[in-house]
Amino acid sequence: MKPIHLGIVGLGSIAEYHLRAFGRLDGVTLAAVASREPERVARVVREYGVAQGCRDYDQMLTATPLDAVVICTPSDLHAPMAAQALRAGKHVLVEKPLAVDPQEVDALCRLAREQGRILMAAMTARFTPQYLEAFRETTRGAIGGIQQIVIRWLEKKTIGVNWEGKAVSVDPRTSTALYHHGAHMLDAALWLAHDEAREVYAIGAKRQALNDAVAVLVRTRKGVLVSSVHSFNSPIKIHDCVIVGDSGLMEIRGYETLTVNGQVKIEVPWRTGLEGGVYNQAAEFVAAIRESRPPIASGEEVRATMAALAEAYDQLAKQGAQ
Q1: Are 62 and 156 in the same domain?
Q2: Domain contains 290
Q3: d(CA 265, CA 259)
Q4: By C-alpha distance, which of 84, 40, 42 is closest to 62?
């Protein structure tokens, strides 16, 4: 089996999860990492056995023989960096959001088709053991046809600080509650419903620098109702997803448990669920490359999520809550 030589650009907290996940996969070589912080590059090269550390993205793409790239940079760089990698003939996995403008997503998808390369978005919630199994159960009809999906993700969070307490760059759009948690959850809901949004309604509130509380209501083309509520101001963390079917119910709590019709199917610690999601995501990316097929969360597939988020954001902007 020919090794896949992988490069990762951007070495923040999420990149470490990707490094661990791809490092566990057979037939994958961690060929290069790139960052403008030389001390971080040196540490990652040493700790993860990466073949080469690069001072910037251009050097990584031109000076290193790579088959695929993982983009973990700030959100506003995702689309241009993905385009650059595709033009250089690389398969691309992009941290969410793939792009904030649906037209940018369309352009990236066209470029990937023209280049004959895989374009995949890191919608990690889909790949956690709980959501993967929930998708299988809905596909098998375990709860009948889906009527409604209710999501809550409430926690105490400071904009500009990530889930590991590290300072991160602030983007006026994607650092909001809508894009930070809402992107993952709305994407998971549309995926579970096997559908896309027909109507989108959003209302928000701003107590920090950006909107830190938002409620989004979606009606899909098949008539499934999705309500997704997010807050950065809750003293107690609540993260759950309830899927109501014609003949049953599923409940997902965080990345920890999945219950189907009252029976616990999966129960793991949160960190295990997240690490499992990143690993399953990496494995899907590699499998799609080897099998020359569209991956789960391909650019085309997540376009519906990006369009729904863009519509919700536009409504929040008109309210002054962006």
Answers
A1: no
A2: no
A3: 6
A4: 84
Give the containing element (helix H, strand E) for 244.
strand 233-245
Q: Using an 8 Å Cβ cutoff, are 74 and 175 in contact?
A: no
Task: Tell me, yes or no, whether 64 lies in a domain.
Answer: yes
C-alpha–C-alpha distance, residues 122 and 260, integer Å: 26
Domain housing 72: 4-123
Domain match, 86 and 158 both? no
In a domain, 105, yes or no: yes
DSSP structure string for 169-206: ---TTTTSHHHHTHHHHHHHHHHHTT--EEEEEEEEE-
Q: Which amino acid is at 56?
A: D
Q: How far apart are CA 144 and CA 298, in angstroms?
A: 27
50 within a domain of the structure (yes/no): yes
Both tokens of residue 253? 């709590």
Residue 43 in tokens: 């540490």
- H or E segment at 116? none
Provide the whole-model pTM: 0.95
Residue 203 identity (one-letter amino acid): I
pLDDT tens per residue, the chain (322 residues)?
A: 799 999 999 999 899 999 999 999 999 999 999 999 999 999 999 999 999 999 999 999 987 899 999 999 999 999 999 999 999 999 999 999 999 899 999 999 999 999 999 999 999 999 999 999 999 999 999 999 999 999 999 999 998 888 778 888 888 889 999 999 999 999 999 999 999 999 999 999 999 888 899 999 999 999 999 999 999 999 999 999 999 999 999 999 999 999 999 999 999 999 999 999 999 999 999 999 999 999 999 999 999 999 999 999 999 999 886 5
Structural domain count, the chain: 2
